[in-house]
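Journal club prep, shared notes

We agreed each person brings one worked example of a sequence with its structure written out as tokens. Mine is SPFH domain-containing protein. I'm keeping it raw so we can talk through how to read the token line rather than staring at a rendered picture. Sequence first:
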Amino acid sequence: MESKPRDNRLVLNRETPARTFSGYILLVVLLAVAAASIYGIVSLSQFDGDPSLAQVVPRILGPVLVALIAKGFFLLQPNQAAAIQLFGAYQGTDRNTGLRWTWPWLSKRKISVRIHNVTSERLKVNDKRGNPVEIAANVVWRVDDTAQALFDVDDYREFVNIQIESAVRAIGSKYPYDDFDHDELTLRGDGDHVANEMAAELQERVRAAGVIIDETRLTHLAYAQEIAGAMLRRQQAQAVVAARHTLVEGAVGMVEMALEQLSAKNVVELDDERRAAMVSNLMVVLCGERDTQPIVNAGSLYQ
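Then the structure, token by token:
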């Protein structure tokens, strides 16, 4: 016979409402049964003669019934849920707050559905250009499906923390730290985009645990210590080059405008030599780092 291949796909649990009851009603029942049991035991002790089996059995079952009812109580705080199980089989989740009650042979496993705030450790990651950077992120998350969180992963808190580290490393290596040419997205200059992509990446990773990612933000971003000094000098050099480039472009435009207006208004006739001298002087004035000192020529331009 031809063997069928095994289906290795993970069968995920899904949260369903549990059939539980208000604990306050059962509390009244418990008090009534306890009072009846106490009255029966006291009356039996005052009975003359040997009591019959019909008189003893109800008085024995009373305390047993009280113990069974008491075992079914459990308390849920706001934003807390309880997964109900029958001999290990999932029966549903109760999200109703206050005093609750279920059958005593059912087990209750509580889980918090509050918002969790986690800040990852500073991780050393190589960015897109291979430069080591230190990066950390803050993640806000909460449990959405209690059945998946409890039964589809071993420890959902540890699972989320590991996936946060993996997502931070993945996003940190996807973008360069900085780019002065503004040709691509960077970790430093496009924090909102990087945070949104990290949230989407992390959400896909923790979906199997029934967790919802509400927000992610980068809390720390810097070059690693071993290259921080060199990268700072590189950034300064690139900033100087970029500033010089902008300055030269502006100076050329101003010189061109000055020559055009002088020629258009016939202020002065400039031959090639005079034009070259004016261009040289204007470029020195506009591009120099220090203030220029004017020199007044009282003679001919050619002297």
